[in-house]
Amino acid sequence: MLISMARWSKVTQSWSLSAKLTAAYSLLITLVAGSLTLSLYLQFQRAQRQAIKERLHDITALSVPQIDSDFHALIVTPSDRVSSYYQITQQRLQEIQAMSDSIKRIYTLRETKEGEIAVIMDYAPPPASIRTIGTPLTPVTPLLADSLENIQEPKVESQFFTNARGELVVYGYAPIINSIGRPDGILAIELDATPVRESEYRARAIASITFFITLPLALLLGWILARHLTAPIAELVEAVERVAQGDRDTHVEVRSQDEVGILAQTFNHMSRQLKTSFETLEAKVVQRTAQLAQANQEITALNHRLQQENVRMGAELEVTRKLQQMILPKPEELSKVLGLEIAGYMKPAAEVGGDYYDVLEQEGRIKIGIGDVTGHGLESGVVMIMVQAAVRALLANNETDPVRFLNALNRTIYNNVERMKTDKNLTFMLLDYHEGILKLSGQHEELILVRAGGIIERIDTIDLGFPIGLDSDISSFIAEEKIHLNPGDIVVLYTDGVTEAENEDGVHYGVHRLCEVLSQNWQKSAEAIRQDIIKDILRHIDQQKIYDDITLLVLKQRQPSY
């Protein structure tokens, strides 16, 4: 990406100002048109999908009272298919389906003693086959995933699915309540979503055509605006060229009082001064010689001040390094964390590092963060301190939702990095621990989980987030994964300075060697494991220079106390 941008910069350097403005205005108009078109399409898509969901909600709500709950309660085994109450209930399903061709299948569900969701009644228009009583339901959609008891009123799935026959449908559910007010199952309806998808395709095609029609108009408007703005500047350029060729009587007409007009006035004034200067050249040479001598003295003094400034900046770097170490969690803080043994380590590659980790406890929940800012030095250290401050501020405001948390953190860092005019960004992982449950979100290095017996599990975080500070909005990239920890289980977090630590032959330490150390020492305490890992890394590095910050965090689930 950086190579492509460099090549593009070289290409545009040879462009005229008019060409650059034409490109800029055209791009701006195109972006506005594209954004408007995309916004209209997304609004149309949301409206279409909301309409079909509301329709299915109404169909489901109106259909469930037509099911005789007492008859439905009698249907238990496949042998009940010959009973009159089965036939009556089946007839009701068929009548409901016949109300609309959009209903692809209608059936009822009940949860078995084993916790499975089974089909009780089922009807779909021919040639579809009817499922037998007790057939396990597949697939199980999100609304049904936890328990059927969660459906206390008509509900509709938020997204579309493909059913067993390859049809695009949306699912709706409603509870079947018997005569004594207890739930006896769930009525499920599959409504055809194909027309909605087809209308979205048509709207997308129309939006694309509209967008591409605006491109020639954008180019034309950009060219007109660029010509209007650059014509006076082109005249000034021509006048400058005449002066460079020796015509010191050159004068340009001032047509406006804006910045271009001021530039024209300045040029006329400069032209007159240049003519006067050449007429008194010898005097000017003597004067400039004296000024150069004075400038030389000033440069000497400036060099002295720069030396002093270097000393001052070195002191500031030392202060920043100490500040980083001060805000890291202290061992005595980590020892007070309930439920977990925690041991941390950070060694910067330079005076100021770009790695970050923190452990916070709030209302019985443990928040753990680990990150790695690109590069190292003062800028990376400043970004690291900003991250630590922003994380603590968000937690102080009781922000617990991972999407809102990470997106707010990203906006803060993104805006500050923009203000700093630097390209720094970082990988960042956020962990939430409470009573043996560990939730993780954000993109960082792999998380290593060591179960009892030294069994290693490696959890990839690439799909759980996006680098912080690269884009203004990363909410769509954020996801969460849940891990159940048993007593004695170990979680290891690290930055790439651990796995990419090199020996004198350029060989990286690597994840596999880290896992070997863990599998051999998992039965030890978190602090002992941390020490063993760091010793092994330093043994691997030997006399080689450390090129990147090394950060390690070891968590171990405590044994329950009775």
UniProtKB/TrEMBL annotation:
Q: Per the database entry, which stretches of residues form a coiled coil?
A: 278-312
Q: Which SMART domains match?
A: HAMP (SM00304), PP2C_SIG (SM00331)
- Every HAMP domain range: 227-279
Transmembrane parts of this sequence: 23-44, 205-226
Highest taxon of source: Bacteria
Asked if the Swiss-Prot or TrEMBL record annotates the protein with the keyword rRNA processing, the reply is no
What InterPro entries does this protein map onto? Bact_Sigma-Reg, HAMP_dom, PPM-type-like_dom_sf, PPM-type_phosphatase-like_dom
- Which keywords does the record carry? Coiled coil, Hydrolase, Membrane, Transmembrane, Transmembrane helix
Q: Which Pfam families match?
A: HAMP, SpoIIE
What name has this protein been given in UniProt?
A: SpoIIE family protein phosphatase
